[in-house]
């Protein structure tokens, strides 16, 4: 690797040792791949990361996407990146072979997404959105739509987008007003405005295909009246691409991810001739879009973890090179003693361990979710339902922990650089700006927290929550069979009990109809839930590392790797888990300071 932005050893540890990905290849869906193929995919993603994506990460920030004379220009390397991803079969990596994809397990797609995100987080948006948009056409579109769009999208010639947000409809898509008027020609006339559309227009693909939410004239009010359309920027007529009345009226000047344009679009504004084609059935658009949104939520969690990874390795390198001060033990004893490296200061070690714990814990949770998705694809009946529930249950957590804590992690990386962290001479200020969006798009932390507590915890009479608690219990039981891990297993057991007590307390308000009280501190509940979920992942990793130390007689780097896993697990349990006590105190407190508080308090 030209410049370290992730640990390949850790990625392979998670893929092969913790999640045993190759077991999936026994299923007919994945029988076309094996362990070597998985490693080759990781290697080819690393090649693209090292040679194409990472070298232009800083330049894409300094020369942002530009809107001139009605056209949007992005860095020319974007085309090279999209082509390389298409050639490696990585745009459609988890799409089925039948629609032109590579039909890889989601967990493998997650591994390659992590590599790309750590190499250059902005550039991954282009291919990630195309994959998601094409996935919607593949899952719900007619054969005609599939034939028309998928080859070009998976082939990298056409860009895909998700077009949801409007000026008056951000977190609440209920208020979408874009309209779709049926015609006798098989298409709908689309009119409306969409804002913040990532990769919604640029000069590095021939066409942009918007997966667009709108309401058919006369549709029911609210989300039940939303339909999904394919709205190409240029439509095909007589074998030619012609203008489809989709206009870019501006781009946003963003704080980070500056190389990826976010577009303000108007449809049907020039000559009322913007044509859209219905995907699936009328009024089911939001249900369909949830497929892309859920994938994108995990994708944004992954972006958080991958940016934090890039920042961690920058901080680690710097801490190993920067001499400053003397160690606490010799301080003042010898004025002529040389300065020590900052990595020798306990506070810097603490910051680095925190970053490592967040990065590797977050990645593990996201890969766990991806694996649940794969298991749902490869099982039937009750098992399938169980994996789907587990994935649903954990998706908001896997979006939120890696992004909220990722921001704190990158802030710690920046702190390791001292003043340099605040300056453009080092990449930290860029990574800090880049990661800030991740708690906002794809549903803010507030909205994810409402989904976790308000929907998922009580979903199917608590069946999803029960399935989750059982999964954690299995890990606890296994950890208890190893003496050195017993203490951590018992700590997690206490944590899960604390979480269940808090959950029952809060659900009690819902049962009394006090909905606002039930959900008022949902974000704090999410924080508590997230910490215990990551502790679960660290215990899982601790078990595998402990087993390896017992049975593999590892030496050298391998020994250090497994010992470092155990040490970081201990760090997470010692430094992060205690935070839940404060959160639980607040969540169980009878005093209410937000619900019903008058605006006058905000003087
Ligand atoms: C760089 C960028 C790229 C984007 N890319 C896309 C894209 O490709 N496609 C797309 O469709 N959209 C995109 N978006 C839009 C993004 O998804 C929205 O910005 C996001 O959903 C929040 O909506 P909003 O900005 O209107 O904020 P609002 O919905 O107005 O929220 C403002 C604040 O109020 C809180 N809030 C709102 N409602 C509630 C509630 N019911 N309960 C509690 N708190 C609440 C929120 O948590 C937030 O803190 C992008 C945005 C940006 C900035």
Which stretches are low in confidence, meaning pLDDT under 50 for 5 or more residues running?
none
- End-to-end distance: 54 Å
| Hetero compounds | flavin-adenine dinucleotide
Number of helices: 18
Q: What structural category arises from helix and sheet content?
A: alpha+beta
Radius of gyration: 25 Å
- Percent helix, as a range, is 40-55%
**Average pLDDT figure:** 96
Instruction: Tally the beta strands.
Output: 12
Major sheet: 5 strands, mixed, barrel
Strand order across the largest sheet = 4-5-12-7-6
- Spell out the helices and strands N to C: HHHEEHHHHEEEEEEEEEEHHHHHHHHHHH
Instruction: Sum up the overall morphology in one term.
Output: globular
Instruction: Give the percentage of residues in beta strands.
Output: 5-15%
Describe, in short, the structure shown.
With 603 residues, this protein is of the alpha+beta class.
